Every structure is written in structure tokens, then in C-alpha cells.
């Protein structure tokens, strides 16, 4: 007996079916509804991943000490030394510093580091996005457009709404509606960026299929696949510019023969 096939709703279908706002799709994600991309990547909340400073305090203390050791001779000769260390800190003109000064400078450089996701999950298997939309206006709109194209497990979605739950929408207030021209420009830019992202995903999937079959990927074939998805909104040469770098040199010539 065949197992039942899992059904998935696109974000756009959920908005239409349940009459919610596009931004409320992120409420579904935060409440544990399973989500994936149309290229079968698992969607992960980037806000849930640990963020760390790249270098330790000891690293900067040792770096400052190395700087002093390397420049002792120049300092004794009275040569003015300037420069920038790791982390963008401007060093004093002289290399003579007390142990306390070294610790203070190292601490400032350590504190000045951004918090980063140093060990992100495999980008070929996972799509990172902020479930709380911690972006600027254009980034927020881009994320919403992505969510509309995501696939949500239908059983999870139906169960959520059967419990009369309404996903919250207050996490991402819309920009001032008086700035209509700015909003339209931002949406147009975000739409193009989203299509560019989709084009690269489609091209990567095509390249991986070719590799699995020991064939040489042909960029013209990839362009046709992309055009089928985005429905001819952009010219072939625009799509070629987006995905060209993903292909090996021998695939970039129009009509390159497939490897047998």
C-alpha cells in the first residue's frame, strides 16, 4: 500500500486560503510549522544560531605585544608609527605601552568585533532567514517575498488554524505609508533581488544534477529553466550575468556540448 504523499502550501497560498497578512507567515514559522524552499532546502531561523566574536581577548593582547616587539627598534630611533590593527583599532603613534595600556587597547578591539554566525549550516541543505525580520526595509521586504515562495507543510498549517490560532503580526510594522514612492522602489528592488536569489538556486540545482550524471552543465539550459520559473521578467543576458560565475569556464560558451 502506497504511503500518503505529504502536501505543502506555498506562502502565497496560505495568505489567500486563510486571509492573513504576508508578514504573519513568520508567525507560523516561529510556532513550529515545517518550512522548506522550492529547491528542497530546510528553512532555519538564523536568530536561533549562536553568534560569537571571531577572536578572543587573548588573541588581541598577543597581537598588541607582537606589535611592540616588532617595533622596538623603530621606537627607540624615534620613528613615528601609525597603522590599523585587526578589528579596525588605530594604534598609538609610539609602540611603548604599559601592560595596563595593552590590556585596555586589546579590550577595545575585542569589544569592537561584530557578533557573527561562525559555523553556519550547510548552505546547500539549509536556507537561513530571520523569523523576527531583523532587517532594514529592503531586507524585510526581500524576506517576506522569500516567505511567500516557501513551502509550508499543509498538515501543520491546517492544524494551526483549526486550533483558531492567529499568527502574530506585530513583530514587523510596515514602513510609513506616506512614503509610498519609497516603498514601491524598495519593493521593486527586493523583488529583483529575490528573483536573482531564485535564479542562483535553480542554477545550482541544475549544476548538481549534471554532476551526479557526469555531464557538463550548459548555461543556456540553466537560463531556460530560470525563465520558466520567473516567467520571462528578465532578459537572458541579465540572468546569464547572475548565474555565470556558478558555471565552470567551459560551460559559459553558448552551445557548449555536454560531456558524455
Account of the protein in words:
There is one protein chain. Mean pLDDT is 77; it is low at 78-94 and 170-179. 47% of the residues lie in helices and 6% in strands. It contains ten helices and five strands. The strands form two sheets. It has a three-stranded antiparallel sheet. Strands 3-4 form a two-stranded parallel sheet. It is extended. Helix 3 (57-70) packs across helix 5, helix 6 packs across helix 8 (180-212) and helix 9 crosses helix 10 (236-243). The protein has three domains: 1-45 and 135-172, no CATH class; 57-111, no CATH class; 183-260, no CATH class. The chain has 260 residues and is mainly alpha-helical.
Keywords summarizing the entry:
single chain, 260 residues, mainly alpha, three-stranded antiparallel beta sheet, two-stranded parallel ribbon, 5 strands, 6% strand, extended
Mean residue pLDDT: 77
Q: What is the H/E order? A: EHHEEHHHEHEHHHH
Taken together, the total number of domains comes to 3
Query: What strand order characterises the main sheet?
Result: 1-5-2
Strand fraction equals 5-15%
Distance N terminus to C terminus? 39 Å
Largest sheet: 3 strands, antiparallel
Poorly predicted runs are 78-94, 170-179
How many β strands by DSSP?
5
Number of helices: 10
Oligomer: single chain
Shape type:
extended
Percentage of helical residues?
A: 40-55%
Structural class: mainly alpha
Gyration radius, rounded: 25 Å
Amino acid at each position: 500500500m502506497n504511503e500518503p504523499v505529504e502536501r505543502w502550501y506555498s506562502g502565497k497560498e496560505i495568505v489567500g486560503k486563510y486571509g492573513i497578512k504576508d508578514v504573519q507567515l513568520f508567525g507560523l514559522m516561529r510556532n513550529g510549522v515545517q518550512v522548506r524552499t522550492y529547491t528542497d532546502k530546510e528553512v532555519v531561523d538564523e536568530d536561533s544560531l549562536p553568534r560569537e566574536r571571531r577572536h578572543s581577548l587573548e588573541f588581541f593582547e598577543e597581537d598588541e605585544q607582537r606589535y611592540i616587539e616588532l617595533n622596538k627598534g623603530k621606537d627607540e630611533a624615534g620613528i613615528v608609527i601609525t597603522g590599523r590593527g585587526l578589528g579596525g583599532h588605530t594604534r598609538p603613534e609610539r609602540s611603548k605601552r604599559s601592560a595596563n595600556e595593552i590590556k585596555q587597547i586589546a579590550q577595545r578591539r575585542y569589544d569592537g568585533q561584530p557578533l557573527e554566525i561562525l559555523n553556519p549550516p550547510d548552505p546547500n541543505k539549509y536556507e537561513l532567514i530571520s523569523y523576527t525580520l531583523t532587517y532594514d526595509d529592503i531586507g524585510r521586504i526581500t524576506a517576506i517575498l522569500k516567505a511567500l515562495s516557501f513551502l509550508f507543510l499543509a498538515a501543520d498549517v491546517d492544524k494551526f488554524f483549526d486550533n483558531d490560532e492567529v499568527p502574530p503580526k506585530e513583530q514587523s510594522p510596515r514602513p510609513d505609508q506616506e512614503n509610498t514612492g519609497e516603498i514601491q522602489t524598495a519593493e521593486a528592488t527586493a523583488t529583483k533581488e529575490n528573483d536573482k536569489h531564485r535564479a542562483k538556486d535553480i542554477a545550482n540545482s541544475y549544476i548538481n544534477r549534471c554532476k551526479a550524471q557526469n555531464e557538463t552543465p550548459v548555461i543556456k539550459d540553466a537560463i531556460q529553466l530560470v525563465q520558466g520559473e520567473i516567467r520571462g521578467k528578465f532578459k537572458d543576458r541579465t540572468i546569464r550575468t547572475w548565474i555565470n560565475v556558478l558555471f565552470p569556464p567551459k560551460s559559459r560558451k553558448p552551445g557548449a556540448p555536454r560531456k558524455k
